[in-house]
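User: Can you recover a sequence for this backbone? Please restate the input before giving your answer.

Assistant: Of course. Working from this structure:
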């Protein structure tokens, strides 16, 4: 807006000024005119008083004059004015009274005039009355009465004259005042008119300036308007565009309305949901209160906002009053948490906004905790569950599992015990020792293991410098003697002092920080083989019943392993002795047997002289038995060679068919003797193998098939299967029970007891056959059913298959 142009309010005020001035002048003129009019009225009243009083005097004089004329002439016509005069005078007096109302002096004067008029008329009446009565006789009028009448009239005249003089005086003053007020009014009106003119001129000037300004402003305004018009055109264009947008908006609004309705419906649903949520929250609160997990809620500044009773218990375990932790920062309340896994993981859960779960061992509480950290709005919730028991059970089971595996892996039990001791050191103990009873009945520490390798030296030195008193009333010796474990949940300083031999001993024990201990016997098959000692130091656990049970189990498993190893060692020694014996014996038997066979041949050939038929038949029986015996000895020899790992394989390229045929030919007589038929369905195959061993295996299987069948047919068939060939011997014999199918391959094992057997044998045939087959890279297997027959199959690797 142009600043030179007066504002609308100002303009209104300024344009009203001349009008106000004109009004002022008019008002002054009006007041003055009213004053003049009022003065005029007063002049008129004075004139009226003068005229009325003059009329009153005139009527009084007329009446007197008439009365006088009547008195002189006795002519009643002269009484005419007199009669009318009294009423006119009364009338004039009334008028005068009205005119002088409010002016006491004048009123008083009128009263007096009225009194004089009344007295004068009374005199006149009396005189006229007397005249009528004495009309004829005497002159009716005395001079005194006339004089009195004259006096009254003079007084009346004087009074009226005074009255009129007063009014005339008033009139004169009024005129002066009137002139003054007319002059004053004209001066005031002129002055007001001049001021109004001046002001109007000034305002006009101001207005004209303002108008100039306004014109300039108007021009600017016009320019602006033109601009605006252009803009307006553009705006119109935009408006059109906006209209289309508005249409779009309308559509959107429609959508919004629909959405809004949907939202309203949703709001109703939300209200229901809110009620449900409140119920759920109450339920959640109850659940949290009863949750065995220690549950805490922290805000984004890590202040406690909720702690459930379980969490309160954990806090009091740390010596913290849970009722005072709310609104306090967890890291200030439990400073030892800083830098722990809990610290790291809670920060991570909050940072990555995801649930984090982990397990942690808290040495202060000697407890395992399973922690879940759940980010919530503005903070995190933590659930901590004490899983010590489960964890210890798991660790125990794992330890037993690992120990069993280690113990079963080797028969070198001293090494094994060391591994087991190392396993025990860790979760279960800080250090572990094993003492074993030796063959002389003495006790010896065989293993000592410590978490800290450096401390093993200390422990060994302790053992060397201060050998344990195995004869003492407690400790390893006592446990081995009695077979009963000893448990020391808390080893006190007093106990250490009592057990120390001297101050150095005590110092070493202090160095080892022994705090809790377990000594358990290692028992197997009723014999106590030694004792297992577990020791826990400062930061480790305090042993309880569950640890004792675990240690007992571990010790028992170790004892069984030691026992097995010891048994195995003896068995191995016995087996070696047996193999050596068998080899020597068979060799020693073979030599004389060969001599027997040789001499039998000489005799049969008649070298020593001719023999009759009976002698020849007896020699033939000797030969059969000798051959059988030789076969048995060969079998035993082969077994002892294979068993000792001394059997040698000689591989040649051979054909399968001829070997099968050869074996069948060899067992032919035996089959015939038992009334059995032999059938060969073999397909040929080329093998790179030891033909002698293949033949020996086939002979064993064929002779068993014949031995364990009464009649019928024995079939030999072969089947090539990928890179192996299977030769099966199918018999219709007695069969083998499923429970014995594997046992028959063990050396010296036979299905029936020797005493009840129908057929002879060593019980080595199948064992030797399988071992030989395996030496050749194949195997011998069996399928059989009792009373239905058996199928023994020899599989061998092939080089090339031939039809
Ligand atoms: P043996 O010298 O007793 O034959 P083997 O090792 O050859 O020793 O056989 C072990 C046992 O297996 C036999 O004693 C017999 O009980 C059983 N057996 C072997 N072959 C057969 C078969 N073909 N039919 C039934 N039983 C058999």
């Amino acid at each position: 807006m142009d600043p030179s142009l007066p504002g609308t309010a100002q303009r209104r005020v300024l344009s009203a000024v001349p009008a106000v001035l004109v009004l002022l002048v008019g008002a002054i003129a009006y007041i003055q005119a009213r004053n003049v009019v009022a003065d005029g009225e007063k002049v008129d009243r004075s004139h009226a008083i003068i005229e009325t009083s003059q009329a009153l005097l005139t009527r009084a004089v007329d009446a007197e004059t008439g009365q006088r004329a009547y008195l002189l002439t006795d002519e009643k016509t002269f009484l005419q004015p007199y009669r009318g005069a009294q009423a006119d005078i009364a009338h004039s007096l009334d008028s005068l009274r009205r005119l002088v109302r409010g002016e006491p002096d004048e009123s008083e004067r009128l009263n007096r005039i009225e009194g004089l008029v009344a007295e004068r008329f009374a005199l006149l009446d009396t005189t006229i009355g007397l005249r009528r009565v004495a009309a004829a006789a005497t002159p009716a009028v005395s001079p005194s009465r006339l004089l009195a009448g004259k006096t009254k009239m003079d007084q009346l005249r004087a009074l009226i004259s005074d009255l009129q003089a007063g009014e005339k005086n008033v009139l004169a003053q009024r005129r002066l005042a009137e002139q003054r007020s007319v002059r004053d009014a004209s001066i005031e009106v002129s002055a007001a008119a001049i001021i109004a003119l001046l002001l109007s001129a000034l305002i006009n000037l101001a207005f004209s300036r303002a108008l100039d300004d306004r014109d300039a402003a108007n021009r600017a305004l016009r320019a602006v308007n033109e601009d605006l018009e252009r803009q307006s055109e553009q705006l119109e264009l935009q408006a059109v565009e906006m209209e289309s947008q508005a249409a779009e908006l309308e559509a959107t609004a429609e959508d919004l309305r629909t959405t809004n309705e949907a939202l309203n419906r949703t709001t109703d649903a939300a209200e229901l949901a809110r009620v449900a949520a409140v119920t759920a929250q109450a339920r959640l609160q109850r659940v949290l209160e009863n949750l065995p997990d220690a549950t805490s809620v922290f805000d984004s500044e890590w202040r406690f906002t909720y702690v459930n009773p379980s969490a309160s218990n954990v806090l009091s375990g740390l010596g913290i009053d849970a009722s005072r932790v709310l609104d306090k920062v967890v890291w200030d309340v439990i400073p030892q948490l800083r830098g722990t896994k809990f610290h790291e993981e809670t920060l991570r859960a909050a940072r990555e906004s995801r649930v984090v779960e982990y397990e942690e061992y808290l040495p202060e509480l000697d407890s395992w905790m399973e922690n879940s950290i759940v980010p919530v709005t503005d903070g995190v919730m933590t659930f901590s569950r004490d899983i010590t028991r489960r964890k210890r059970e798991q660790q125990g089971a794992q330890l037993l599992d690992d120990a069993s595996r280690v113990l079963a892996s080797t028969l070198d039990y001293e090494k094994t015990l060391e591994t087991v001791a190392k396993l025990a050191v860790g979760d279960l103990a800080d250090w572990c020792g094993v003492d074993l009873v030796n063959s002389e009945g003495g006790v010896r520490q065989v293993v000592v293991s410590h978490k800290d390798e450096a401390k093993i030296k200390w422990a060994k030195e302790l053992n060397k410098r201060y050998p344990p008193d195995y004869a003492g009333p407690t400790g390893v010796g006592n446990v081995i003697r009695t077979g009963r474990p000893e448990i020391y949940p808390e080893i006190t300083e007093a106990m250490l002092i009592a057990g120390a031999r001297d101050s150095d001993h005590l110092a070493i024990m202090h160095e080892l920080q022994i705090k809790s201990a377990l000594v358990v016997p290692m028992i197997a098959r009723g014999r106590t083989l030694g004792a297992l000692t577990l020791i826990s130091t400062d930061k480790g656990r305090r042993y309880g019943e569950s640890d004792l049970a675990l240690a007992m189990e571990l010790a028992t498993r170790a004892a069984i392993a030691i026992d097995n190893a010891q048994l195995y060692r003896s068995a191995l020694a016995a087996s070696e002795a047996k193999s050596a014996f068998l080899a020597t014996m068979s060799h020693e038997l073979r030599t004389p047997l060969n001599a027997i066979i040789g001499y039998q041949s000489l005799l049969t050939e008649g070298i020593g002289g001719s023999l009759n038929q009976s002698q020849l038949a007896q020699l033939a029986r000797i030969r059969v038995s000798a051959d059988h015996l030789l076969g048995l000895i060969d079998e035993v020899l082969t077994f002892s060679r294979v068993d000792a790992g001394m059997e040698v394989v000689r591989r040649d390229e051979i054909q399968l068919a001829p070997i099968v045929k050869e074996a069948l030919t060899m067992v032919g007589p035996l089959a015939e003797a038992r009334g059995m038929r032999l059938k060969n369905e073999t397909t040929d195959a080329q093998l790179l193998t030891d033909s002698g061993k293949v033949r020996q295996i086939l002979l064993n299987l064929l002779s068993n098939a014949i031995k364990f069948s009464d009649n019928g047919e024995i079939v030999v068939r072969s089947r090539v299967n990928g890179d192996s060939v299977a030769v099966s011997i199918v018999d219709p014999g007695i069969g083998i029970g499923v429970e014995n199918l594997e046992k028959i391959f063990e050396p010296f094992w036979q299905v029936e007891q020797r005493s009840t057997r129908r057929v002879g044998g060593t019980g080595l045939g199948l064992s030797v056959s399988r071992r030989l087959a395996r030496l050749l890279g194949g195997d011998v297997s069996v399928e059989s059913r009792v009373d239905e027959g058996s199928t023994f199959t020899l599989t061998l690797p092939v080089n090339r298959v031939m039809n």
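That completes the design. Residues 143-290 form the longest helix (148 residues).
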